[in-house]
Write a structure and sequence with these properties.
The protein has 307 residues and is an alpha+beta fold. The protein is 23% helix and 39% strand. The chain contains two helices and 18 strands. Strands 3-11-10-5-6-7 form a six-stranded mixed β-sheet, with no helix packed on it. The longest helix is centred in the last third of the chain and has 40 residues. The N terminus and C terminus are likely disordered.
């Protein structure tokens, strides 16, 4: 921009031209922290300036790639790059450059920066979006009659407390999506555990549940679970012993040798028969000798030669 002025110096009029240059300055309107719960919608505003030339939303989530939404007034044109359908203009960008996120998910958490180019300057505004995931509360009695409280898939991790008092130390289990499951077992400072309340504290909202566990009844059931198999084992063991004892007695009766009569050796029979056999053999020899002699002398049988 040029401006002229007339000045009189030493009686002369001098025309002086002064050159004024106006430059556009980028201003940061501010940083805004926004907290929203999973499943709800979030609206992020931009600086409502008149005579807007261009608007650009630059989105940098904590997980995944970035995306951009843009609008050019001179072409009356909008464009989007790598943005999901759940992220869009709330209305028409030439009227209102507000951004809307429908059905917020944990993946939407990150930084959202609006850049506005107008005739009177450039403006930036950044929203730091934090997404909360309320935990799912579950309260139950374990096998020993001990109350167990579980706050599943919460972001950030939930805080668990008990009424009555408990000295339990919660255990945390982190998941890939950034949520955390917290589990706490009730540890009683007294023997009265019939009515116990679990309280879950979380930025998305507090929850509580009560339960009545009966440790005596459960302990009795657990005792029966151990006693009955032990008793059956003893009976089975005694039956096995009786079975083997009974069969061993029968086996002894079957294998007992019978009373034996006096043995008669074949050698004795041989000894008794042998003298008779010898006598018969001798008689046969004599008889054969007489027969041979009678036949040789043609004598009538029955007569013997004179010796």
């Amino acid at each position: 921009m040029k401006a002229g002025a007339n000045m009189k110096i030493a009686g002369k009029t001098v025309c002086v031209f002064v050159l004024l240059t106006i430059t556009k300055v980028t201003r940061t309107v501010g940083n805004n922290r926004v907290t929203v719960t999973v499943g709800s919608s979030s609206v992020l505003t931009c600086s409502p300036k008149s005579n807007i030339t261009m608007v650009t939303w630059k989105i940098n989530p904590k997980v995944g790639g970035s995306c951009t939404l843009g609008y050019r007034a001179d072409q009356n044109k909008t464009d989007r790059t790598n943005c999901s359908d759940s992220i869009n203009w709330k209305l028409r960008p030439d009227w209102d450059p507000t951004l809307e996120i429908r059905q917020v998910e944990i993946a939407h958490e990150g930084d959202y920066t609006c850049e506005v180019v107008a005739t009177d300057g450039n403006f930036h505004k950044t929203h730091h979006l934090t997404v909360l995931a309320p935990p799912r509360l579950t309260l139950y009695c374990d096998g020993h009659g001990v109350p167990v409280c579980e706050a599943a898939a919460g972001k950030p991790p939930a805080q668990i407390s008990w009424v009555l008092e408990s000295t339990s130390i919660p255990k945390e289990d982190a998941h890939d999506n950034g949520t955390v499951t917290v589990l706490s077992k009730f540890t009683a400072l007294s023997t009265n555990r019939t009515n116990t309340t679990c309280i879950v504290s979380h930025p998305a909202g507090n929850q509580s549940k009560s339960i009545a566990c009966r440790p005596s009844g459960n302990e009795s059931v657990n005792l029966h679970v151990y006693i009955i198999p032990c008793f059956l084992s003893i009976i089975t063991f005694m039956a096995v012993i009786y079975y083997f004892k009974l069969h061993s007695d029968r086996l002894c009766h079957k294998t007992k040798p019978p009373e034996t009569a006096p043995t008669h050796s074949p050698q004795d029979d041989t000894m008794e028969v042998e003298p008779y056999t010898t006598y018969v053999q001798k008689e046969n020899i004599i008889y054969n000798s007489v027969s041979d002699l009678t036949a040789g002398q043609n004598l009538p049988q029955g007569l013997s030669p004179a010796t």
